[in-house]
Amino acid sequence: MRILAIVGTRKFQNSRALLYADLLIGYEITWGKWDGFVTGDADGIDLMCRQKCEVASQPCEVLVPENKRWEPAGYKARNIAIAEACDEMLCIRDPGSTTYGSGWTANYCRTLDKPVTTVEIS
């Protein structure tokens, strides 16, 4: 099975950015070569991925942190699990975002020698 992780920014500064992200995620879920998807439980890109998978009846594993903190057993562990669960990753980010969780996850995925596509939309 080929699994694509889709992660990204929770909130974009430009509302048009969400339209571009929506098109990109929709394409991967509808026309991509994937057997399933994995994402987190955050708002923004994670939520968009979950909703689009549901509408398209595509399998989507949603990973939730045990604790609402970076570590231990929090977002860091969840982000590592996302990177480990996928074959490739799509990271959609707003370069002006004040958080870097999805960027951290993409960087970690690269340390596993997995392909990562990072799309920055502002």
Describe the structure.
- This protein has a 5-stranded parallel sheet with strand order 3-2-1-4-5, with helices on both faces.
- The protein is α/β, with parallel strands linked by helices and 122 residues long.
- Helices cover 41% and strands 20% of the residues.
- It has a single domain (3-120), classed as Rossmann fold (3-Layer(aba) Sandwich).
Q: What percentage of residues falls in helices of 4 or more residues?
A: 40-55%
Tell how many strands the DSSP assignment holds.
Answer: 5
The overall pLDDT, averaged over residues, is 96
Number of helices: 4
The CATH class turns out to be Alpha Beta
The arrangement of helices and strands along the chain is EHEHEHEHE
Distance between the termini: 33 Å
Brief sketch in words of this structure:
By secondary structure, the protein is an alpha/beta fold. It has helices at residues 15-31, 45-55, 75-85, 101-111, and strands at 3-8, 36-39, 60-62, 88-93, 116-120. The chain has a five-stranded parallel sheet, with helices on both faces.
Give the secondary structure arrangement, pairings included:
Blueprint: E1 3-8, H1 15-31, E2 36-39, H2 45-55, E3 60-62, H3 75-85, E4 88-93, H4 101-111, E5 116-120
Parallel strand pairs: 1-2, 1-4, 2-3, 4-5
Helix pairs in contact: 1-2, 3-4
Characteristic terms for this protein:
single chain; alpha/beta; 5-stranded parallel β-sheet
